Amino acid sequence: MSRDMSPRSAILTPRQWEVLRAVLRLEKQGGDSCLTASALAEDLGLARQNLRDHLLTLHGRGFLNYHARPRQVALLSLTPAARAALGAPAGFPLLGEVAAGLPALADGGVQERVTRLDDILPMREGDFLLRVRGESMLGLGIFPGDVVAIRPADVAQNGEVALVLIPGENAGTLKRWQQRGRAVTLHSENPAFEPMRFPVADVQVQGVLVGHIGLGGARRSARGRP
């Protein structure tokens, strides 16, 4: 595989090239496990701290989307510059599924890549996509099988729809965020689902909703329900 030997890519070390190739390989493998620093370190046989130094360098040089935040699972993805350097297809990563019903693990394996999405959604580099499972957000027109665009964030404002991890479950779910003092209520957009209440310190915000694309077959069947 030929490399892009532009001045920016030429400054990478052999180990940094190896890290980028490993991220690309794990993206292609997909699967149910999140693409995390721990998984990448195990794949490469590197100590986590040594790998973290490489990840921060690659992020700083524009080759990797990597945001290390305490107590949160950091999703890794290649930037367009890295994909061009590796000769890989460009586009936004589609990262598995997110629950819009009962909490379920938010998968991190890249299933496919979608190009020119920024023509219809206000997406920017670092954003990612999730396919919805469940019916708790029907009131927003988000049906099972639809795709939501998420912008990485570690805080959410009241009224925003956020991707959060549920306490004690390592579970990702899409809910409307409402915080009062040290407590947060996660609201569904479906009266069949009760609000979920937690201490703010126990809930991890992973991102906020940018927009969504209605793709689900359930959308058509729902129109025929009484």
TrEMBL record:
Family affiliation: Belongs to the peptidase S24 family.
EC number from the UniProt entry: 3.4.21.88
Keywords for the protein's UniProt record, in alphabetical order: Autocatalytic cleavage, DNA damage, DNA repair, Hydrolase, SOS response
Every Peptidase S24/S26A/S26B/S26C domain range: 93-210
InterPro entries associated with the record: LexA-like, LexA/Signal_pep-like_sf, LexA_repressor, Peptidase_S24_LexA, Peptidase_S24_S26A/B/C, WH-like_DNA-bd_sf, WH_DNA-bd_sf
One GO MF term: serine-type endopeptidase activity
Protein name stated in the entry: Repressor LexA
First-level EC class: hydrolase
CDD domains: S24_LexA-like
Origin: domain of life: Bacteria
